[in-house]
C-alpha cells in the first residue's frame, strides 16, 4: 500500500519514509464502471497487479506506465511486455 499525498506531509519537516510512486496501473473497465489508476513504487508489484486484474477478469484492458517518461512497460492488448531490465 502506498502513501497518499496527505500522508506524505509531516509537521516536523522531515521527509516521509514512503518512497515516491514511480509506476501506474491503468485499467479500462466495462460500463457503467469507470477506469481506475493505482500507483506503485516497484515495477514488479505493478506488473503483477496488472496480470492479476486480467486473470480475474476485472478489467478489459490493463496498462502499466512508468511515470517518469510515460513509457508503457506492460500492455497485453497492445502486445507490450518489456523485459525486467528495461523497467
Strand order of the largest sheet: 2-1-3-4-5
* Backbone structural class: alpha+beta
Gyration radius, rounded: 15 Å
What oligomeric state best describes the polypeptide chains here?
single chain
Number of contiguous helices: 2
Mean pLDDT: 84
Determine the fraction of residues in helical runs and give it as a percent range: 10-25%
Total beta strand runs? 5
Largest sheet properties: 5 strands, antiparallel
Outline type = globular
End-to-end separation in angstroms reads 20 Å
Uncertain stretches = 1-6
**What are the secondary-structure elements, in order, as H or E?**
HEEHEEE
Observed structural traits:
single chain; 87 residues; alpha+beta; five-stranded antiparallel beta sheet; globular; disordered N terminus
Q: What does this molecule look like?
A:
The chain is α+β, with helices and mostly antiparallel strands and 87 residues long. The protein is 21% helix and 28% strand. It has a five-stranded antiparallel β-sheet with strand order 2-1-3-4-5, covered by helices on one side. The longest helix is centred in the middle third of the chain and has 14 residues, at 43-56. The protein starts with a helix and ends in a 6-residue tail after the last strand. Residues 1-6 have low confidence and may be disordered.
Brief write-up:
The chain has 87 residues and is α+β, with helices and mostly antiparallel strands.
Amino acid at each position: 500500500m502506498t502513501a497518499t499525498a496527505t500522508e506524505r506531509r509531516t509537521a516536523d519537516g522531515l521527509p516521509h519514509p514512503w518512497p515516491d510512486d514511480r509506476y501506474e496501473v491503468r485499467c479500462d473497465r466495462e460500463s457503467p464502471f469507470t477506469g481506475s489508476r493505482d500507483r506503485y513504487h516497484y515495477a514488479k508489484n505493478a506488473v503483477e497487479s496488472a496480470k492479476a486484474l486480467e486473470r480475474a477478469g476485472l478489467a478489459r484492458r490493463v496498462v502499466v506506465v512508468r511515470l517518469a517518461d510515460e513509457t508503457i512497460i506492460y500492455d497485453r492488448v497492445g502486445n507490450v511486455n518489456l523485459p525486467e531490465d528495461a523497467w
